[in-house]
Each structure stands twice: as C-alpha cells, then as structure tokens.
Amino acid sequence: MPVLTKEQQDYKRFAKNKKPKPPLLKNMIMAFIVGGIICTIGQIILNFFVSRGLTPGQAGGPTAIIMVFLGSFLTGIGVYDKIGKYAGAGSIVPITGFANSIVSPAMEFKREGFVFGVAAKMFVVAGPVLVYGISSATLIGLIYYLLNM
Amino acid sequence: MKKLGSQTIKFENPPSIIGTGTIVGPKEGQGRFKEYYDLILKDSIYQEKSWEKAETKILKEAVEMAIKNSKVPTDKIEYLIAGDLLNQIISAGFAARELGLPFLGIYGACSTIAQGALLGSMIVDGGFAENLVAAVSSHFCTAERQFRFPLELGNQRKPTSQWTVTGAGAMVISSQIQNPRITFATVGKVIDMGEADPNDMGTAMAPAAVDTIVRHFQDTGKTPDDYDLILTGDLGSIGKDIAEELLKQKGYDISNKYSDCGVLIFYPEQDVHAGASGCACAAVVTCGYIYKEMLNGKYNRVLLVATGALMSTTSTQQGETIPCIAHAISIENL
Question: Are B216 and B6 in contact (CB under 8 A)?
C-alpha cells in the first residue's frame, strides 16, 4: 500500500464516518443458523452411514461426497448464491461452499471453452484454499511427526 | 480562444444533441426511469451466446436507435466515439465493426459518456464533422466476470458496493441548431485520495467529482444558481453525501439541485446497496430521462459530471489505490 499524504489521511478519516456499518449481529446470527443447518445435514448423513455399518471414520468420505454434490447441484441450479446472500460465512465456510467456489467459475467460464475456460479458471477462487490448506496440513503433519520421533 | 481557465472549454457554436438511443436490461427496466428508455430487454443475454456478445449487440442497437431518432441518414454520421468497461473496450470495437462507422474508441470507465460527449462536441464545434455519435455500454454480467466474482458464487456484497447497469446509451451530436445544446465542458484531472477498496468506489470517486465541479465553477465564473440540476454519474449514496459535504466546505451549496444517476436509476427495494454504476448508468439517465425532460422544458440547464474509477484488477491486487476522474458537460436549452 502506498504511503498516504496528510490530505489523503484526512479524507480517509472524513469518509470513514460516511460508510454504512455492516449489520454485524444479523450477519453472525444468519451465518450461525445457516452454517448450523448445513452441518446438521452433514451429521444426519454421517449418522445414516454409521447406522448402516460403517465406522465414523469410514463414513466421513461418502458424507463429504454427498455434501459436495449438494453444494455443486445447488450452484448449478442457481440457488447457492441466493443462500449466500443471506448466509454469508455460513454457506461459504462449509464444504458445500468450497464446492460452490469451484463449480461457479467452471460454469462462468464455460464460454471460453473447456481448456482455457472451465479447466484453467475452475480454481480461481478455491486455489488459495487448496494451496495454503494442503501446505499447512503438510507442514503441521511434518512437525507432528518430528515431535513424536 | 475557446478555453476558459485551465480545464474548461466554451463552445463557440454549441453543438446540439439531436437524437438519443437507450437500451437497458430487465432490472433497470423496473427502475425509476422505465418510461424513458427506448428498449427494455426481457433478459440480459439477448439471444446471444455470451454476455460479451450481448453487450456488443446492445451498444450497436443503441447507436442505431440514436441515429434513427436523429433523422440523420447513417451515411452522414461521420464518427463513432464509444467505450465500455471491458478489456480492450471490446464492446465498442465489435459494435463499431458491425456499424461500419469511422471509430474512435475511448476509455474513461464510468465517465466515458461525458468524455465522449465532450470530445464529440470539440470535433463538431471545431468544424471537423457535422454529425457524429457518442455511445457507451456496460453489462452487469460482463463486469462481474472481469472485475469481481463468478455469478453463481455464494458471497455477500458489501453495503458500499454498487450494481453495474446493463445497458447502452448513445447520443447524436450535431452542428444543427436544435435544443438541447452542449455549451461548456470541463476536462477532469485524475484525482487519487488514497482509497483502495474496489467495493467502495463512491468514496474513491467523490473527490474527483468535487475537483471537476469546483474547477468548472472557477473557470466559468458560474455558481450553482446557473443550473437547474447538477447530476453526478455514479457516486452512489455514500459518494453523493461525501461530494455534497466537500462542495459545501469549498463554498458551493448544491444540496437543493443535486442528484446522482447511480442513486436514481434503481428503486431502494431493488436492493443495489450503495447504488448503480457502470458506463451505462450516466448514459441511459442522460440520454433517456434528462434528454427527454429537457425537450419538455422541465430542465433547461443541466451539469452532468460523470465519474470514473481508473483501476484494473491487476492494480488493485498489487496494492495500488484507486485513481479517479470526472468530466463535466453543461447541457442547456438556449
């Protein structure tokens, strides 16, 4: 960020009072409710698999697959962005939001073709999540392994 | 010498706006000025294979409508001055390909209609043409995919964000003597007050609007009393408040005759947060509502101050602030 002059700093201070405050409480409540609902659905699915004989560990995989499918499907039919408008973090953070972040650019850039559009642009939103998520998991895993040697 | 002060032009033979064309998308067609547009689309893809192709079609047809409404035969239209928000101004370039007119592509972000009108007026008043058309377009979907996020992404828009208008506005500028006429133009300087949030362009652009308005008054010796309406392009509700207060601090109280196209074009129930933006915002309001109400005599002296934010996604990602510009044109019934 370039260093601001005094005039620019004064303006920033002046303009700050004019900015509407985001409705923090409402946003947090909605995120809690919607995020909670999504996780509850996931739990129901996991419990179903466990009731059919899988261990909780084994049930994790198919549960994630179904949740990703739901996120992708709702994105494909144009519903997920409407949920996101009200839910904010509640629909972005769960795995359904991750699916939405990959499916939405894939849909958007289909017009640029399957190579440079869909395939290349598919990870434009989720890319940082993958890179930093996998890297930090690897790093933590390495530290854990070394500490336990 | 046609120059007043440092940035203002006084046209010796004020060129006339003799015809306009406006096309808007469905959301705009449910807004405040629905009675004033020439065409309201049923959907924003307009039977094309991509949003970009739709925007090109919308711009091309707005130009054709303006030419038709001007009653000037197409072969007497000497230049097309046009621009839009997309990289390499492809809407304008591809529309120019279809229209076959000598083409001057310009970029001023959302200030482009004022920039095009003032350049067109200089060309006509300077005797370089008798009839030309200035036009701009923007499209919500093309702007989102270039500047922001994929349409189906489930993210929340900030309260300060603005909604890009889908539409195009075109005006035929002529040496014919007919009201309304473009009497003065003030060319803006790039003003950067250190704002870096691309989700709050009103705050970034307001100082540029103020700078140009003050310069216009100082160069011409006019005051707010010399106008029935002072209209900024797309400062939105926050930028409008800031501009009004800054102007008051500089000794210009415009509160009883000031509005902003971004605030007017949609109703509050249409939930566009701070307001509308896009090249078409100022263009469809000016070429639709303002032009028609000036023909009716509701307004006789209007100062249009269209504002633009000159950043790109690259500059923002590199941590740069947002440089802005505002161009003013004075439209009067003489």
Answer: no
The CATH H-level superfamily of B181-332 is: Stage V sporulation protein AD (3.40.47.40)
ipTM of the complex: 0.90
A residues 125-144 closer than 8 Å to B (CB):
125
Q: A1 in contact with B at a CB cutoff of 8 Å?
A: yes
Question: Using a CB-CB distance cutoff of 8 angstroms, which residues of chain A are in contact with residue B323?
Answer: none
Interface test with B, best of A16, A18, A129 (most B CBs within 10 A): A18
- The phi-psi region of residue B69 (left if phi > 0; otherwise alpha if psi is between -120 and 50; otherwise beta) is alpha
Q: Are the C-beta atoms of B160 and B309 separated by less than 8 Å?
A: no
Smallest CA–CA distance, residue A104 to chain B, in Å, is 5
Total domains in the fold of chain A:
1
Inside any domain, residue A108: yes
Q: Is A8 domain-assigned?
A: no
Task: Indicate the CATH number for domain B3-174.
Answer: 3.40.47.40
A147 inside domain: no
- For residue A131, is it within any domain? no
The answer, for A57 touching chain B at a CB cutoff of 8 Å, is no
Segment B96-109, tens digit of pLDDT: 999 999 999 999 99
**Global pTM value:** 0.94
Residue among B154, B193, B321 minimizing CB distance to A80: B154
Are residues A15 and B203, on separate chains, in Cβ contact within 8 Å? yes
Cβ contact, residue pair A12, B238, below 8 Å: no
List the structure tokens of B156. 């929340």
> Which residues of chain A lie closer than 8 angstroms to B153, CB-CB?
81, 84, 100-101, 104-105, 125
Which one, of B80, B85, B74, B218, lies nearest residue B143 by Cα?
B85
Expressed as residue numbers, the domain containing A93 is: 24-123
The boundaries of every CATH 3.40.47.40 domain in chain B are 3-174, 181-332
- CB neighbours of B154 closer than 8 A, spacing ≥ 6? A75, A80, A81, A83, A84, A85, A87, A91, A92, A97, A100, A104
A92 touches chain B (CB under 8 A): yes
Bond into A94 cis (ω within 30): no
- Token pair recorded at residue B301: 């002296």
**10-residue averages of pLDDT along chain A (149 residues):** 85 91 92 97 96 94 97 96 94 95 96 95 95 97 95
Q: How far is CA A131 from CA A117, A123, A140, B23, B108, in A?
A: 20, 10, 14, 44, 37
Measured between beta carbons, the chain B residues lying within 8 angstroms of A8 are 192-194
Distance CA B284, CA B212 (A): 22
